[in-house]
């Protein structure tokens, strides 16, 4: 997006796939900028693990703390750290200081800061094919750490299908596509589904499943998919609703929730909430 390019940061969550010798990864690149933490939450709620990227020259930023906190709140089981831009750091002691700071920050939010693998390298060097000792070799070392340290997730494929809708697209001549990560169950092409939440419940049929631009017969728990829906207008569905097996989910207007409010030091509220606060 132009606004991202202008600022050199990630705003919306981007999905890519790649493989190591041991695993096939769906990688969600999350926003690193404080203004866009809302998009980070959407991405984080879907993760089996995370790579926390910290600028080795600057050390942890305020949003690094927010990302770690969000990881804890949405239940990301494990993190690996990549200290990026090491080519901008001449002092070995400074690098050790940043690593210590990151470990302390992780420990403060109940991650095992002392045990988490921290790899220092340069993503740009890897992209440009130079200085392999800080570039390509370090990326391979990072992925080896991810393979080893992040546990194999259990997938709930035998439960009723449910997918929170993250985004909605209109494809001319084909219809409306909703994207998201399948939370549980399986969806097959031809399955009848319901769209639940925010508005009145709607019935639809899945006429296509796509993952990383490949057409598939089905999507299952853990997959990031796009589902093509019959008879649904682009305006008839929105982010925040869920796609599910008919009659398996009921919407509620009243529920109990656990809420974490950022305090003043964390860049959040300066004043308290009161009864009937809006």
Automatic annotation (TrEMBL):
Superkingdom to which the source organism belongs: Bacteria
Entry function: May play an important regulatory role in cell growth and in the bacterial response to nutrient deprivation.
Listed Pfam families: GTP_EFTU, GTP_EFTU_D2, GTP_EFTU_D3
Name of this protein: Elongation factor Tu
Subunit structure: Monomer. Heterotetramer composed of two EF-Ts.EF-Tu dimer complexes.
Family: Belongs to the TRAFAC class translation factor GTPase superfamily. Classic translation factor GTPase family. EF-Tu/EF-1A subfamily.
Residue span(s) of domain Tr-type G: 1-154
Keyword Thylakoid appears in the UniProt entry: no
Keyword vocabulary terms for this entry: Elongation factor, GTP-binding, Hydrolase, Magnesium, Metal-binding, Nucleotide-binding, Protein biosynthesis
The organism of origin for this protein: Roseivivax marinus
């Amino acid at each position: 997006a132009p606004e991202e390019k202008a600022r050199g940061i990630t705003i919306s969550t981007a999905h890519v796939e790649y493989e190591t010798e041991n695993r096939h990864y769906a990688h969600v690149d999350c926003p690193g900028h404080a203004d866009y933490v809302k998009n980070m939450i959407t991405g984080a709620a879907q993760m089996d693990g995370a790579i926390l990227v910290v600028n080795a020259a600057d050390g942890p930023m305020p949003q690094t703390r927010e990302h770690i906190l969000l990881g804890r709140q949405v239940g990301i089981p494990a993190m690996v750290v990549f200290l990026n831009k090491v080519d901008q750091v001449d002092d070995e002691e400074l690098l050790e200081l940043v690593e210590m700071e990151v470990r302390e920050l992780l420990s403060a939010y109940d991650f095992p800061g002392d045990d988490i693998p921290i790899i220092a390298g340069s993503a740009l060097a890897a992209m440009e094919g130079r200085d392999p000792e800080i570039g390509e070799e370090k990326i391979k070392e990072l992925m080896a750490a991810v393979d080893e340290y992040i546990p194999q997730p259990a997938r709930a494929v035998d439960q009723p299908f449910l997918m929170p809708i993250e985004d909605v697209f209109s494809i001319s001549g084909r219809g409306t596509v909703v994207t998201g990560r399948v939370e549980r169950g399986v969806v097959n092409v031809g399955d009848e589904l319901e769209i639940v939440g925010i508005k009145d419940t709607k019935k639809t049929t899945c006429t296509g499943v796509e993952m990383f631009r490949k057409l598939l017969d089905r999507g299952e728990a853990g997959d990031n998919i796009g589902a093509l829906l019959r008879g649904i207008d682009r305006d008839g569905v929105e982010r925040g609703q869920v796609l599910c097996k008919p009659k398996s989910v009921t919407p509620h207007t009243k529920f109990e929730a656990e809420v974490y409010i950022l305090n003043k030091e964390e860049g959040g509220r300066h004043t308290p909430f009161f009864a009937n606060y809006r």
